[in-house]
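If it is no trouble, can you show me the amino acids of a protein and the tokens describing how it folds?
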Amino acid sequence: MGFLFRFAALLKQRRYELKQAQLELARAKGNHEQALAAQERLGGKISLWQETWQRDQADGMSVSQHLLARDHLLFLEKELERAALKADQKARELDERKVHLIECEKKVRMLELLEEKDMRAFNFARAQREQKLLDERVIFRKKSGERQ
């Protein structure tokens, strides 16, 4: 009879959960990177808008254009704050996924160690049975040799 791990189904399930955790972590990394890129793009837009606004102010602009430009700049700054909050949220989500992945890895490793331990115990017991069988054959041959 061959070795059959008693928790094979559980190990298979935990390995599947580990794969899912790895995929979730990859998705979370992608989302975080996208949020950071959006935040960086908005920062660039604000810098460009400020430069344009300052240049237009130096050339002279009407009050309505000035107010419109100021309001647009305020809008962009609020968007930047929202993007920063979103990036922070994605960073927290990424940290949660990392923790979940570590927990899944621990669960899988625990079962793998248990499987290795059971395999060693199985191999030891099999070796003992084989040795016992060999010893019995030797004894039987000696006894049958003495009778002849």
